[in-house]
Amino acid sequence: MEKGSTLISIEEAQNLVLTCSSLATILLEVPLTDALDFVLANDVISEIDIPPFRQSAMDGYALKISSEKTYTVIGEIKAGDHANPPLKNTETVRIFTGAPVPDTADAVIMQERVAVDGTRMSPQMPLVSEMNIRPRGSQIKRGATALEKGTVLKGAHIGFLASIGVTTVTVYKKPSIGIVVTGNELKAPGTPLEYGEIYESNGTMLSAVLRELGYLDTAITTVIDDYEETKNTLAAAIKKYDVVMVTGGISVGDYDFVGKALKAIGVAEIFYKVKQKPGKPLFFGKKDSTAVFGLPGNPAAALSCFYIYVYPLLKKTEGATQTQLLRIEMPMLEDYNVRGDRAQFLKAYVNGAHVQILGGQSSAMVRAFGDANALVFLPENTTIVKKGTPVKTILLPTK
Ligand SMILES: Nc1nc2c(c(=O)[nH]1)N[C@H]1C(S)=C(S)[C@@H](COP(=O)(O)OP(=O)(O)OC[C@H]3O[C@@H](n4cnc5c(N)ncnc54)[C@H](O)[C@@H]3O)O[C@H]1N2
Ligand code: MOO
To answer: Which reaction does it catalyse (predicted)?
Structure first.
């Protein structure tokens, strides 16, 4: 344990974030076409069978199976036709994929497996009852749950809901998110840098990452290292947004005003400092219904804390069943010598059957995050991880 501070464990911190976050109370009815990335607030019940009729899965011939070797072609049914001709024992209809299979037919034979001579059709393979016919309701039955409450709507879900005729869905309102970046050294890209200055990138990065995840109600505010200004800016952000992420100014330096300012404006500290690398000085607190994260100023540390702590809170707030990023075990591609004794999150690339720890792990360097599709978690006091050893691998969202 560090002198003069109480570092909590990663697990403790993650649990505190989840127990202290509350579900959105505002529900929205949105057109299905605008529902991507929202979370369903109700189960969606299908009002129809899908497919709504017995449907041909092949281009071929629909028939009633008999002992006859040859059938007479009496017509044709294509997708979208409403015909339902009664078939006698030795009759068949030409049929196409997606077309309704006549009630009297019990098999469809694909056209590659028949011999045709004028209106005479002879199957060239054994016929099996209901072959190449999609039963009515085989994808979903009327009255069944199509999608459950808590589902994060992806493109495929939107397609599935469209297929059962849904036009609007009830979803949780997504949290609004204020990003406050602190530091005298920060300049907006587009202006020349004076000695000692850097370009502001945390706000731009976090807002882009939020956009990737479907959070669009966000804004960035910049504040200099001044106690009064920090207090005023944070108080205004906390009043306005459901979640506030501050970056920088959370460590122990004389000009790190964020902690003091948050306390002064009445943000209750839930934890400050976590036994992890990067992101040791992470702060989490609450004021009224607003969750406040003090993220480290170092860009890669800020992003790492975003995925491990802020992401689950956002997901829980918007009602998602799955709040954590997916975790798998993957064998290491190469040996890795660990620096430091804190538990670590390392930028990594899952490549087929292995995971590779990327170069450029410094929390000041964000480049490797761009190449990463995962974070490898190594518990505290790990010294070396040998090639082939399975490690906990957290998959980053891909877009
Ligand atoms: N005496 C100690 N010093 C530090 C400790 C410590 O325990 N004792 N912890 C170090 C660790 S770990 C981290 S992480 C940083 C966190 O410090 P802050 O959160 O207070 O961040 P700053 O000092 O304001 O900035 C750190 C670094 O990041 C750059 N930065 C800040 N904001 C932005 C931005 N919006 N865009 C781009 N870059 C940004 C800033 O210029 C600094 O270089 O504290 C260590 N120190
Ligand atoms: O923990 Mo700091 O977040 O290493 O960079």
So the answer is: adenylyl-molybdopterin + molybdate = Mo-molybdopterin + AMP + H(+)
By the 8 A CB rule, do 93 and 71 touch?
Answer: no
**Separation of CA 103 from chain center:** 43
Residues 271, 197, single domain; the answer is yes
DSSP string of 151-186?
A: -B--HHHHHHHHHTT--EEEEEPPPPEEEEEE-TTE
Task: Report the distance separating Cα 356 and Cα 160, nearest Å.
Answer: 36
Count of domains in the chain?
A: 4
Which CATH number characterizes residue 14's domain? Answer: 3.40.980.10
Alpha-carbon distance of 39 to 58, in angstroms, equals: 36
Atom 44, ligand 1: residue with shortest CA distance: 251
Question: Rounded CA gap, 391 and 332, in Å?
Answer: 7
As beta bridge partners, residue 330 has: 391
Residues 257 and 200 in one domain: yes
- What is the residue with the minimal CA distance to atom 13 of ligand 1? 296
Q: Bridge-partner residues for 95, per DSSP?
A: 60, 77
Question: Ligand 1 centre from 248 Cα, in Å?
Answer: 6
Q: What is the ipTM of this complex?
A: 0.96
Give 11-21 pLDDT, tens digit per residue: 999 999 999 99
pTM of model > 0.95 = no
CATH number of the domain that residue 36 is part of? 3.90.105.10
Residue pLDDT, tens place only, 347-389: 999 998 999 999 999 999 999 999 999 999 999 999 999 999 9
Q: Distance between CA 69 and CA 284 in Å, rounded? A: 77
The whole domain housing 350 covers: 327-395
* DSSP character string of 116-130: EETTEEEESS---TT
Which among 251, 256, 303 is the best mutation to test ligand 1's pocket, defined by most ligand atoms within 8 Å of the CB?
A: 251
1 band by pLDDT with thresholds 50, 70 and 90: very low
197, 166: one domain:
no
Region 108-126 average pLDDT:
98
Considering the domain architecture, whether residues 62 and 150 belong to the same structural domain is answered as: no
